[in-house]
Amino acid sequence: MARTSSIRTQAAAFAAAATLALGTGILAAAPAQAADSFGCPSGAVCFYPGTNWYQAPSKTFWSKGVHRIYGWEGQHIVYNNQTDGWTVQLCRTSYGTDCLPKMRPGDGWPENLSPINSILISDR
Description:
The protein is of the alpha+beta class. The chain has 2 domains: 1-30; 44-122, Gamma-B Crystallin, domain 1 (Sandwich), CATH 2.60.20. It has 1 helix and 7 strands, in the order αβββββββ. The protein has one helix at 2-24, and strands at residues 44-48, 59-61, 65-68, 75-81, 87-91, 108-112, 118-122. The chain has a 4-stranded antiparallel sheet with strand order 2-1-4-6, with no helix packed on it. The relative contact order is 0.18.
């Protein structure tokens, strides 16, 4: 019986130490890397034709900055599969201004691209 109590005591002490270490940031985990999902490669922003997630992306962007898009009409799924916390914004101008709210990594939904003329991919 004493042996079982000792193991439980040691396990409780370890759990308390791990919780304390995580709370102080000593054992903070590295940011998770995105996996390929819905046909969108890890580290990319993907646009799908229409609103069907199970089609191949029609356009994929990889690098940060402003990317101009023209003539895309109607609903398209936009999916941010970026890594390291990078965000994407859909913008009304072709210069990455007058933008909609940021899409965080893992965000994706149908969006009307008729008024959109650029996207802004940022590491902030």
